[in-house]
Amino acid sequence: MDKPVRRVAIFALLLFFGLMAQVNYVQGSQAEDLRTDARNSRQYADVFNSPRGQISAGGEVLVVSKETGKDNPKYGRTYKDGPIFAPITGYFNGNATQVERAYNSLLGGKDTRITQQRWFDTFIGKKAEGANVELTIDPQAQRTAYEQLKAGTAQGRRGGAVVIDVKTGAVKVAASWPSFDPNEVAPQTGEKGGKRLEQLDKGDGVVKPLVDNALSQTFPPGSSFKAVVSAIGMQKLGLNSSSTVNTGQLILPESGRPLPNSHDSGSCAGSAPLRGAFAESCNTSFAKMALDMGIQELHDGSSRFGFGKHVQLEPDMYAAESDVPVSIKDAKGNTIETGKDGTARSGIGQENVRATPLQMALVACSIANDGKIMNPYVVQKVRAKDQSELYNASPKEFGEAMSGDQAGQLEDMMRAVVSEGTAKNLAGRRVAGKTGTAEQGPGNPNANWFVGFSPVENPRYAFAVMVEAPGSGASNAGPVAAAIMAKVLQK
Amino acid sequence: MQSIGDQIRAHLPYQRRNAASLALLAFAMILTLSAFAEVGLARDGNIPGGLFVYGGGLAVLAFIAYFFQAKFTPYADPLLLPLAVALNGIGLAMIYRLDLDTSHDRKVAAAAGRKLLPDAADAPGQLMWTFVGIALFVGAVLIMRDTDKPDAPMSFTPKTAQRYTYLIGLTAVILLLLPIVPGIGAQINGARVWIHLGPFSVQPGEFAKLLLVVFFAGYLVNKRQAMSLIGKKVGPISLPRARDLGPIMVIWFFCLGVLFMQKDLGTALLFFGLFVSMLYIATQRVSWVVIGVGLLAVGVFVATLLPFMGHVNQRIDIWQNPKPYFDGGCLLDSGKVVPVNPDTDIYKKYKAQGSVSPGFSACAELGGEYSDSAQLMKGLFALGQGGVLGTGLGQGEPWRTPLSFSDFIFDSLGEELGLTGLMVLLLIYALIVQRGMKTAVAARDPFLKLFAGGVSFVLALQVFVIVGGVTRLIPLTGLTTPFLSQGGSSLMANWILIAILVRMSHDARKPAPQAIQDEGMTQIVSTR
After folding, report:
1. pLDDT, tens digit, for every residue of B225-278?
2. Which range has the worst mean pLDDT, A236-240, B39-43, B312-316?
3. What are the residues facing B331 on neighbouring strands?
4. Most buried by CB count within 10 Å: which residue of A237, A322, B135, B153?
5. How many CB pairs under 8 A join A and B?
6. In angstroms, how far is CA A449 from the centroid of its own chain?
7. Is residue A210 one of the residues assigned to a domain?
8. What is the DSSP secondary-structure string of B447-477?
9. Where is the Penicillin-binding protein transpeptidase domain (chain A) (predicted)?
10. Of A403, A436, A408, A461, whose CA–CA distance to A275 is shortest?
11. Chain A residues within an 8 Å CB radius of B438
12. What secondary structure does DSSP assign to B259-297, as a single string?
């Protein structure tokens, strides 16, 4: 009987070998597939099991993770003044947006910069704690911007504001109205949060709360785009601020209809130096410049300012693409070229020209910074829990949009807008810039812009403010910008 | 030629290995105490009080067991007790770790005024059953006397076994039948294998398993000569006589019938493998294996055709292709699987109507067979989460696995201990089985050989069926994972199993009795 016992013993061993092979197959080869299987809720729930890092700005802690007392999610997310800072922080509910998304691996403690440093914790299976992110945002100015936009925007419409440090590109303000409260969709809200998110995503009319109006939404820039056209004109047509330009009536070549100016007096009476036409925002001069250069030149020239690109603020955090289109596709997919009339209207920031407030702030940045645009960024530092520095932003040049001399002339032209042009109402408020009042079709309020820099004599910050409201850039956007800049300059 | 058993016996050192056993036991305790410490450190950042209650309690019990083993079975195999203690300790630590979570759930549920969780990890209960199990181990070691003293009470000698063979067989059958008796039987998680005894739920099948080994060993010892020699030869295989086959077939069909009615394919498979292997050991005839496997194949095929055996069908479908069944799938006659999970409209419809099992109702409307692979898949997800090194005890999320403390405890351990930990666990099982097989080979008596071989194989098969099930090597069937799963019946039966092996290894390894030396002149008795 020993022989069959031995055979049964071998058979039993084979059973164990079978099990070992299968366990190796499942935990070795299949593990990755299992972890990422769409049905596997662990991968979504796992992110709620360790505290995420904090997000702070100007020494003020804005976003923290707190224990919920539940097993899932174990940690929630609390946003201080959620709607005010949402355009930068974004939200986190397993999925994430903005900084919550761009810095997900650091905030969640999964980044190799943390795990390499804490390799022993990783080895013993201890979860590394998320790192803390410090924003470039000036929280007080951000609050002011939010309140100002809220007050200045028409019911059911949008407003956005961006302020950039011209020397570094650090974003000081990126505010949006309306906004949403990330607390409402944070992990601890569970299913309710998911429903709220769906509701927010749908939006109401043009208002899409999840889309911030500072970085992620484009508007017709209107006359504020004349700063770009002027710069291109200086380069392509050899103009300077004192060159005489035609400011009288312009008949559009295709339709034969006149392109009006807001007024036919002062500089807009027939001809004037470029400086005057700019200060008083004579449409005809810039439409004519656009016609002289053609839409392709306009398109190419503006791309040096960042048009036609998704400007990258942080890894995996991009702004919406601003554009001066040579042609567009209509709803049926047919290509429609931008004709002569369209080119003329493009020159005054109408037709199909679109820009984000961030993009217009970059335009102002180039003017205030000797033609150089600094790459915008919103995260200054990342520190591990033990305060060791994991990341520190180093300013990078985005590009050179014009020469220092041209920038100096445009700087002066922008000062003229406030001293003698369309924004005289802002005199003495430490801002210079270009107004813009873009029509958005019948029944819609104008997109009112004020794009410029501050302080006036020695610019340190570039800004762009857009509010959709009846009225003009000077009367609506200008004061908003002045109020924000007053707060920024308080430091 | 010497048999293998004789060869082994010739080389056996015939010495007591108690020191080795004690050292291994100490190692097993270090393993267990470390597991408790890790749970505490991972969860609360300190050594938990449970370390002293549970780890300390288990240590005391283990050393008591060791004391009795060393005193009454000094030649016993030194590995069996430490290996069993290590498994029991790791299982206890895991249940303790899960209990921390579920007791948290309980607190939350109580605070919200909801009903407490009906079944959950219960570490104090498991410690109590460990105590009972080890007490049974000690008791069994004491009661089962040396086979050399056949008049000792309940000794496992061929004589006593033969005397009680049919009584033991009958007891096993009664135990198997108990769960389907209305009133005391209970269906838990789709299998009717439980009975209620006062406040306790008992799985009588766990004990029937051991009794069936005794019955078969006793029966086969009597019949093996006839069964292995007599029979018509048809082609390459020789058929057994009807009168040898008859009684086997009776109990065989009976067991299978009962188990199919209880919808417990796992236990059926277990008993079946046991019968076949013991028949083979007893008769050395491959024909028995062929007949056995053939019968099982027919049995399973017939079962899958029966409409009320859909349960078995589903298990096989899910095993082959689990993904479409996640959270509920409906197998249509065309072979197509339609999802009926909570995201589907048809599910929502029945949910809105207040159906107890909306997925099932939805599938009934579609005219298919409803199955849910969520348990299996979630277990696999746990294994995937663990990967090679595991998350570390106390640092995974094993509560996401259904039945993480019982049927799926192997997956829970796989999550937190990883592939490396599971290899260790499987090696421990394999070692116990192989030490048992070695005992069978070394045993002098055919009954003991059969018995030790059968007991060892049933352990191997049980591990294979449940672990193979939760790792998707074979279709999933519910069985306890020996020593690891939460549950009194399983712990008690398996501790008795270890006691039997310990006692038998002692008998097999102890020195042959010394011839009585002359102490003088041989007395000559005159017959005149």
Report:
1. 777 666 666 666 666 667 777 777 776 777 777 767 776 777 778 888 888 898
2. B312-316
3. B337, B369
4. A322
5. 161
6. 16
7. no
8. HHHHHHHHHHHHHHHHHHHHHHHHTTSS---
9. 159-485
10. A408
11. 9
12. HHHTT-HHHHHHHHHHHHHHHHHHH--HHHHHHHHHHHH
Task: Map out the domains of chain B as residue ranges.
Answer: 1-148+158-313+375-509, 327-371
Residues in chain A: 491
Say how far apart CA B387 and CA B399 lie, in whole Å.
Answer: 17
Question: How is residue A300 written in tokens?
Answer: 């190419």
Among A346, A370, A362, A319, which Cα is nearest to A451's? A362
Diameter of chain A measured on Cα atoms: 119
The single residue listed with the structure tokens 């351990």 is: B413
Of A13-17, B321-325, B494-498, B508-512, the one with minimum mean pLDDT is B508-512
Pairing of β A327-329 and β A335-337: antiparallel
Query: How does strand A55-57 pair with strand A132-135?
Result: parallel
Choosing among A8, A22, A30, which should be mutated to test the B contact, i.e. which has the most B CBs within 10 A?
A8
Domain residues for A252?
222-378+395-489
Amino acid (one-letter) located at A90: G
- In angstroms, the CA A308 to CA A310 distance is 7
**Is residue A293 in some structural domain?**
yes
CA pair distance A397, A376, nearest whole angstrom: 9
A15 to chain B: closest CA residue:
B464
Name the helix (H) or strand (E) containing B232: strand B232-234
The Cα–Cα gap between A148 and A139 comes to 14
Going B345 to B351 to B357 to B363, the CA torsion angle's sign is negative
Tens digits of residue pLDDT in B143-171 = 876 555 555 555 555 556 667 888 888 88
Cα–Cα distances (Å) from A285 to A29, A324, A355, A401, A407, in that order, read 69, 18, 21, 21, 20
Which residues contact residue B271 at a Cβ distance below 8 angstroms, ignoring those fewer than 6 apart?
B209, B212, B255, B256, B259
In sign, the C-alpha dihedral spanning B75, B77, B80, B83 is positive
For residue A57, give the amino acid letter. Answer: A
Q: Is residue A232 part of a domain?
A: yes
Indicate if the alpha-carbon torsion angle A277, A278, A281, A283 is positive or negative.
Answer: positive
Helix (H, G, I), strand (E, B) or coil at A256: coil
- Cross-chain Cβ contact B423/A20 below 8 Å: yes
Q: CB–CB of B374/A37 below 8 Å?
A: no
Tokens of B255: 């067991």
Asked if the Cβ–Cβ distance from A1 to B450 is below 8 Å, we say yes
A3 touches chain B (CB under 8 A): yes
Which CATH number is A421's domain given?
3.40.710.10
CA A252 remoteness from chain centre: 35
Give residues with Cβ within 8 angstroms of B69, minimum separation 6. Answer: B18, B21, B76, B81, B141, B502
- Count of domains for chain A: 1
When mean pLDDT is compared across A173-182, A413-422, A435-444, B252-261, the lowest value belongs to: B252-261
**Chain B environment of A110 (Cβ under 8 Å):** none
Beta partners for residue A465, in sequence order? A161, A450
Contacts B42 to A, Cβ<8 Å: 125-126
Block residue for tokens 């293998």: B4
Q: How far apart are CA B235 and CA B243, in angstroms?
A: 21
CA angle A42, A48, A51 (to 5 degrees): 140
CA distance B265 to B468: 14
Helices marked H in A25-108 — which ranges? 31-36, 42-45, 82-89, 98-102, 104-107
- Measured between CB atoms, does A29 come within 8 Å of chain B? no
Pairing mode of beta strands A60-67, A55-57: antiparallel
